[in-house]
């Protein structure tokens, strides 16, 4: 299909997402909002399947079928009381998917032996590293949030007061590695280091937060997975990824703020993985 | 470079739109809104389809990563919208 037609349908999908999120904020329109958002997703998927870049349909069809089956079974079986855990898993998988997309694009550039000096390529690689970092933190952070809510891990805050310095250190190491990858000073080994550090960072960010605060953490991680999706969109210049990712990222952080106020918590503490004051005393 | 600026403008405007969309949300809708927008963040499925469908030329590793990404993103999308629907359906019966 023509690239212009595809982009017009992407615009339609993005508008449906806007209407969907808007609808979900009011009790009367919430159900319709969810349906509109789902319709937007359907439009985006169908149009992408018709894209000329998609040559081989076997893997795509198998992946869609397997994912839809697992997702549907999980959604039907889950207990109403286990909803926060469920959202945590789904969110972690979304972050993992962004990691997969970014890794695929990085290795496809690497395989083509493209030199990493062109400014466009550097921007695309920068976006890829950002998607890897945020996607991975979302993935492992959501896994810890799930484990805490499911009581696989103890619900109380685990850690010590200097934890935020460790988190800051890990973040700096991750950013330095990402920079080396973008400038071509590091290769596949550096990529593995980036993923490893981001995995640890996701764990150390969520570990110090108590089980009762987990819904706020999940809302924050949801916002992160939106930003990861937007970053993945910058890699391939895909408008629907950028717009929807930005929408979820921004609305997610506002929702996190609203939930913090409702639960009498500070957003900064949740952001930096600091222990809640009440638990520390 | 010019395309990048256009994309960046799009991103910045969408961020502002996202902020403005959420104003007052009743507490009962916090979880459904979170789960609904979480399903929307599964839009990364578009990138996954493009990666997995890029053909054997791009190499086994790229295809494998694309496949895993499709499975993850589809679970996120299908599970996300269905779970949100279930949650909202329950409110309706109660109200």
What are the main properties of this structure?
heterodimer, A: 281 residues, mainly alpha, 11 helices, 0% strand, disordered C terminus, B: 95 residues, 4 helices, 78% helix, flat, cell membrane (chain B), translocase (chain B), EC 7.1.1.1 (chain B), NADP binding (chain B)
Structure commentary:
The complex is a heterodimer of chains A (281) and B (95). Chain A contains eleven helices and no strands. Chain A is an all-alpha fold and 281 residues long. In chain A, helix 4 (83-111) packs antiparallel against helix 5 (119-149), helix 6 (163-182) runs antiparallel to helix 7 (188-206) and helix 8 (214-236) runs antiparallel to helix 9 (239-262). Chain B is mainly alpha-helical and 95 residues long. Chain B has a domain at 28-90. Chain B has four helices and no strands. Chains A and B meet through helix 1, helix 2, helix 3, helix 4 and helix 5 of A and helix 1, helix 2, helix 3 and helix 4 of B. Chain B: Residues 8-93 form the NAD(P) transhydrogenase alpha subunit C-terminal domain. Chain B: Its EC number is 7.1.1.1. Chain B: This is proton-translocating NAD(P)(+) transhydrogenase. Chain B: The transhydrogenation between NADH and NADP is coupled to respiration and ATP hydrolysis and functions as a proton pump across the membrane.
Q: Sheet bearing the most strands of chain A, described?
A: none
End-to-end Cα distance of chain A = 61 Å
* SS elements, strand count of chain B: 0
Main sheet attributes: strand count, strand direction, barrel closure of chain B = none
Which chains share the greatest interface? Answer: A-B, 104 and 83 residues
- Indicate the proportion of strand residues of chain B: under 5%
**What is the end-to-end distance of chain B?**
53 Å
Average pLDDT over all residues of chain A:
89
Structural class of chain A: mainly alpha
**Residue runs with pLDDT of under 50 for 5 or more positions of chain B:** none
Give the class of chain B from helix and strand content and strand pairing: mainly alpha
């Amino acid at each position: 299909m023509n690239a212009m037609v595809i982009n017009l349908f992407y615009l339609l999908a993005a508008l449906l997402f806007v209407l969907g999120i808007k609808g979900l904020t009011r009790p009367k329109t919430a159900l319709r909002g969810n349906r509109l958002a789902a319709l937007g997703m359907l439009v985006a998927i169908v149009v992408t399947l018709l894209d000329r870049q998609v040559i081989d349909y076997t893997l795509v069809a198998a992946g869609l079928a397997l994912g839809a089956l697992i997702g549907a079974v999980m959604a039907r079986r889950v207990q109403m009381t286990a909803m926060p855990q469920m959202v945590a898993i789904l969110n972690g998988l979304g972050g993992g998917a962004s990691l997969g997309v970014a890794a695929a694009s990085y290795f496809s550039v690497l395989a083509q032996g493209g030199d990493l000096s062109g400014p466009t390529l550097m921007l695309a690689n920068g976006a890829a590293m950002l998607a890897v970092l945020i996607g991975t933190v979302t993935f492992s952070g959501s896994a810890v949030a799930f484990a805490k809510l499911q009581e696989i891990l103890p619900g109380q805050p685990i850690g010590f007061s200097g934890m935020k310095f460790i988190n800051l250190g890990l973040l700096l190491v991750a950013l330095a590695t990402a920079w080396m990858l973008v400038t071509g000073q590091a290769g596949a080994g550096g990529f593995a280091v980036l993923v490893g550090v981001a995995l640890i960072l996701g764990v150390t960010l969520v570990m110090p937060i108590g089980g009762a605060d987990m819904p706020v953490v999940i809302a924050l991680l949801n916002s992160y997975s939106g930003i990861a999706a937007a970053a993945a969109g910058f890699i391939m210049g895909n408008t629907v990824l950028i717009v929807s990712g930005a929408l979820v990222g921004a609305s997610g952080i506002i929702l996190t703020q609203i939930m913090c106020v409702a639960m009498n918590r500070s957003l900064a503490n949740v952001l930096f993985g600091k222990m809640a004051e009440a638990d520390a005393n | 470079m010019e395309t990048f600026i256009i994309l960046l403008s799009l991103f910045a405007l969408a961020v502002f739109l996202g902020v403005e969309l959420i104003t007052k949300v009743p507490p009962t809708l916090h979880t459904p809104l979170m789960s609904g927008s979480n399903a929307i963040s599964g839009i990364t499925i578009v990138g996954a389809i493009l990666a997995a469908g890029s053909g054997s030329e791009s190499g086994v590793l790229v295809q494998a990563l694309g496949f895993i990404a499709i499975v993850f993103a589809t679970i996120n999308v299908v599970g996300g919208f269905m779970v949100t629907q279930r949650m909202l359906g329950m409110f309706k019966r109660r109200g």
